[in-house]
Amino acid sequence: MNEVMSFLKQCINKEDTVILGLSGGPDSMALFHLLCTLKKEIPFTLVCAHINHHLRKEALEEEKFVKEYTLNQHCIFEKKDLEWQKKTNIEAQARKKRYVFFEELIKKYHAKYLITAHHGDDLTETILMHINRGSSFKGYAGFRRKTIYKDYILLRPLITVTKEEIENYLKSENIPYKLDESNTSFSYTRNRYRSLLPFLKKENPKSHAKFLKFSEELFLIEDYLEKMTQSALTKVYVFGKVNLREWNRLDFIIKKRVLESILKEEYQDDIDKINDRHVKQIFTLCTSKKPNQEIHLPLSKTLVKEYNTLYFCNKENQKREEYILEDHLVWSPKERFEKLKSTDEKSNFILRLDQKEIAFPIKVRTRKNSDVMEIKNLNGTKKVKDIFINEKIPKRKRDTYPIVVDGHDQVIWIPGVKKSKFDKNSHEFYDIIYKYVSEENVDEK
Description:
single chain, Rossmann fold, Uridine Diphospho-n-acetylenolpyruvylglucosamine Reductase, domain 3, Phenylalanyl-tRNA Synthetase, Chain B, domain 3, 3 domains, elongated
């Protein structure tokens, strides 16, 4: 355990505050003893966090044991009683509840470190579990000895030692502890994997060291890939939208990691709702040659592809009612119409009209399936739907795009896109000028 103590000395400084997860079992009691020994040399604050799962009759006795032992060592004792609404998937629920409690204490005591008693055998079990059930590249590596989070640092000092070494240390130092009989029950997934360790150690007594090296190598590669991923994200993911042209230039593994990073940002604590099938669907969407598509994902989220842009759309667009266009009209937070007295601008954002040729009132509304327009300088009519497709107006925008019509519901202008035969050139007579102002790029692809 000398190497463990050396590691702790490198990390913990005078006046640091440390939160220790202390169950009262052999692993956490051995670590508690090491920290108490270090505390005599380096004064720091040690807070012992005990969680009573209330799943065994011995739980109260163990809580009393931990509390008395902690206070006898002049450390702070904190405990949490867990409540269970459903006694299914206990392992996952318990882990989540534990870390919520730990983080509460980190904030309360402004702690620098959270320390847990995971050891080398735990790492081996975790890697085996993740390989067998499937995981991410990072998941196959298990867990690190030192992980830096935003508000604290998580340390697992015992990762280099085995359960046997911990038991020998407890015996040599005469350290008391409590045994949890559920750790031998095959009703828990981890315990079933634990039964494989004797075979591995018989094949190679240093198997835990091999698994540790495997983990460290994977994390080295993971760190490199993460740097590449973050670099790629800054190029392809801007203002919540993916540039698929740039994304398609990436290597496959970086493409996948970029999408995974975006999914984690979108789903956060609910990322477990996304599975491999969803990822495959997203890849198919991204590589499809169809310009406008969408797929529906868990939690009522929709992923939309518009030409070379990909983004999440969490709410269905609401169709608007029609409005009379007079001197000023706000169509949306990013779109408005203004009546001008004069302008030299010549574009599809400006409409010049002779009011004698127009039926009033002039209105702005969303499109109808039957909408057609007589395009300026073009004989005949054309469907508004086809105009949108030809001009590559994103499908999502088509149902909410403003259409300007006269009193007979005749389309006279698709602002920023096309003008009708009623638009006048600057040298012709006109007595009405409207301008469409949009902060969005209608040609976005």
